[in-house]
Amino acid sequence: MDKIRQKKGFTLIELIITTAVLVVLISLVFAAQSRVLANTYLDSNTDQIKQTLWLAQTKSQSGLNNSSWGVNFDNTLSEFTIFKGESYSTRDSSFDITTPLPSSLNFSSISLNQGGNSVIFTQYSGETDNYGSITLSNSENIYNIIQINSKGLISITQSP
Questions:
Q1: pTM score, two decimals?
Q2: Which among 26, 31, 64, 65 could bridge 59 via Cys, Cβ 3.0 to 4.6 Å?
Protein backbone atom coordinates (compact mmCIF):
# COMPACT_ATOMS: atom_id res chain seq x y z
CA MET A 1 0.00 0.00 0.00
CA ASP A 2 2.79 2.43 0.86
CA LYS A 3 4.54 1.93 -2.51
CA ILE A 4 1.48 3.08 -4.46
CA ARG A 5 1.17 6.29 -2.43
CA GLN A 6 4.82 7.21 -2.86
CA LYS A 7 4.54 7.44 -6.67
CA LYS A 8 3.86 11.12 -7.39
CA GLY A 9 4.61 13.18 -10.52
CA PHE A 10 5.56 12.18 -14.04
CA THR A 11 8.32 10.01 -15.36
CA LEU A 12 11.01 11.45 -17.59
CA ILE A 13 9.72 9.55 -20.62
CA GLU A 14 6.21 10.98 -20.14
CA LEU A 15 7.62 14.52 -20.07
CA ILE A 16 9.72 13.91 -23.21
CA ILE A 17 6.76 12.50 -25.16
CA THR A 18 4.48 15.36 -24.09
CA THR A 19 7.09 17.94 -25.08
CA ALA A 20 7.63 16.28 -28.48
CA VAL A 21 3.89 16.24 -29.21
CA LEU A 22 3.63 19.94 -28.30
CA VAL A 23 6.59 20.85 -30.54
CA VAL A 24 5.00 19.01 -33.50
CA LEU A 25 1.64 20.71 -32.95
CA ILE A 26 3.22 24.17 -32.69
CA SER A 27 5.21 23.53 -35.89
CA LEU A 28 2.06 22.58 -37.78
CA VAL A 29 0.23 25.69 -36.60
CA PHE A 30 3.16 27.92 -37.54
CA ALA A 31 3.40 26.39 -41.06
CA ALA A 32 -0.33 26.81 -41.64
CA GLN A 33 -0.21 30.40 -40.43
CA SER A 34 2.70 31.17 -42.79
CA ARG A 35 0.71 29.84 -45.76
CA VAL A 36 -2.35 31.86 -44.79
CA LEU A 37 -0.27 35.03 -44.44
CA ALA A 38 1.42 34.47 -47.84
CA ASN A 39 -1.97 33.98 -49.50
CA THR A 40 -3.35 37.09 -47.81
CA TYR A 41 -0.44 39.16 -49.17
CA LEU A 42 -1.06 37.71 -52.64
CA ASP A 43 -4.79 38.46 -52.61
CA SER A 44 -4.48 41.97 -51.16
CA ASN A 45 -1.74 42.98 -53.62
CA THR A 46 -3.69 41.49 -56.53
CA ASP A 47 -6.64 43.67 -55.50
CA GLN A 48 -4.36 46.69 -55.20
CA ILE A 49 -3.07 46.13 -58.76
CA LYS A 50 -6.64 45.76 -60.02
CA GLN A 51 -7.60 49.04 -58.28
CA THR A 52 -4.56 50.77 -59.82
CA LEU A 53 -5.55 49.54 -63.30
CA TRP A 54 -9.09 50.83 -62.73
CA LEU A 55 -7.74 54.18 -61.56
CA ALA A 56 -5.59 54.55 -64.69
CA GLN A 57 -8.55 53.57 -66.85
CA THR A 58 -10.85 56.05 -65.09
CA LYS A 59 -8.30 58.86 -65.47
CA SER A 60 -8.02 58.06 -69.19
CA GLN A 61 -11.80 57.92 -69.66
CA SER A 62 -12.26 61.27 -67.94
CA GLY A 63 -9.48 62.82 -70.03
CA LEU A 64 -7.71 63.95 -66.86
CA ASN A 65 -4.90 66.36 -67.78
CA ASN A 66 -5.83 65.78 -71.44
CA SER A 67 -3.87 62.52 -71.54
CA SER A 68 -3.93 58.75 -71.59
CA TRP A 69 -2.93 56.91 -68.42
CA GLY A 70 -1.33 53.55 -67.86
CA VAL A 71 0.28 51.14 -65.43
CA ASN A 72 3.82 49.80 -65.83
CA PHE A 73 4.91 46.53 -64.20
CA ASP A 74 8.61 46.25 -63.31
CA ASN A 75 9.66 42.76 -62.28
CA THR A 76 13.29 43.77 -61.76
CA LEU A 77 12.38 46.32 -59.08
CA SER A 78 9.25 44.39 -57.96
CA GLU A 79 6.96 47.39 -58.30
CA PHE A 80 4.16 48.81 -60.42
CA THR A 81 3.66 52.45 -61.42
CA ILE A 82 0.61 54.40 -62.57
CA PHE A 83 1.74 57.02 -65.09
CA LYS A 84 0.46 59.80 -67.35
CA GLY A 85 1.30 59.54 -71.03
CA GLU A 86 1.16 57.54 -74.23
CA SER A 87 4.02 55.26 -73.11
CA TYR A 88 6.10 54.63 -70.02
CA SER A 89 9.28 55.84 -71.70
CA THR A 90 7.73 59.19 -72.76
CA ARG A 91 5.57 59.72 -69.65
CA ASP A 92 5.39 62.81 -67.47
CA SER A 93 7.16 61.32 -64.43
CA SER A 94 5.90 64.07 -62.11
CA PHE A 95 2.53 62.22 -62.09
CA ASP A 96 4.03 58.78 -61.28
CA ILE A 97 2.72 56.83 -58.31
CA THR A 98 4.89 53.77 -57.65
CA THR A 99 3.88 50.90 -55.39
CA PRO A 100 6.46 48.29 -54.32
CA LEU A 101 5.53 44.63 -53.91
CA PRO A 102 6.31 42.81 -50.66
CA SER A 103 9.49 40.72 -50.91
CA SER A 104 7.43 37.50 -50.87
CA LEU A 105 5.69 38.41 -54.16
CA ASN A 106 6.83 38.80 -57.76
CA PHE A 107 5.50 39.16 -61.28
CA SER A 108 6.13 35.64 -62.54
CA SER A 109 4.72 36.44 -65.98
CA ILE A 110 3.85 39.58 -67.91
CA SER A 111 2.22 38.70 -71.21
CA LEU A 112 0.76 41.74 -72.96
CA ASN A 113 -0.25 42.28 -76.58
CA GLN A 114 2.41 44.30 -78.42
CA GLY A 115 4.98 43.20 -75.83
CA GLY A 116 6.23 45.47 -73.12
CA ASN A 117 5.34 45.78 -69.46
CA SER A 118 2.71 48.54 -69.62
CA VAL A 119 -1.06 48.61 -69.94
CA ILE A 120 -2.05 51.97 -71.44
CA PHE A 121 -5.71 53.00 -71.61
CA THR A 122 -6.92 55.12 -74.53
CA GLN A 123 -8.12 58.59 -73.63
CA TYR A 124 -11.94 58.81 -73.32
CA SER A 125 -12.72 55.20 -74.36
CA GLY A 126 -10.69 53.45 -71.66
CA GLU A 127 -9.84 50.64 -74.08
CA THR A 128 -6.33 49.26 -74.50
CA ASP A 129 -4.15 47.78 -77.22
CA ASN A 130 -1.95 46.33 -74.46
CA TYR A 131 -4.38 43.65 -73.33
CA GLY A 132 -3.17 40.38 -71.86
CA SER A 133 -2.26 39.02 -68.46
CA ILE A 134 -0.01 39.63 -65.49
CA THR A 135 0.71 36.74 -63.12
CA LEU A 136 1.51 37.57 -59.52
CA SER A 137 3.10 34.73 -57.48
CA ASN A 138 4.02 34.23 -53.84
CA SER A 139 6.75 32.23 -52.10
CA GLU A 140 4.37 29.26 -51.76
CA ASN A 141 4.12 29.02 -55.60
CA ILE A 142 0.51 30.12 -55.51
CA TYR A 143 -0.47 32.69 -58.11
CA ASN A 144 -3.22 35.03 -59.28
CA ILE A 145 -3.65 36.00 -62.92
CA ILE A 146 -4.85 39.52 -63.68
CA GLN A 147 -6.39 39.64 -67.16
CA ILE A 148 -7.18 42.78 -69.14
CA ASN A 149 -9.13 42.50 -72.38
CA SER A 150 -9.09 44.99 -75.29
CA LYS A 151 -12.17 46.78 -73.92
CA GLY A 152 -10.32 47.39 -70.66
CA LEU A 153 -12.30 44.83 -68.66
CA ILE A 154 -10.19 43.54 -65.75
CA SER A 155 -10.65 40.10 -64.19
CA ILE A 156 -8.75 37.92 -61.73
CA THR A 157 -8.23 34.16 -61.82
CA GLN A 158 -6.85 32.49 -58.71
CA SER A 159 -4.65 29.40 -58.84
CA PRO A 160 -6.33 26.12 -57.90
A1: 0.82
A2: 64
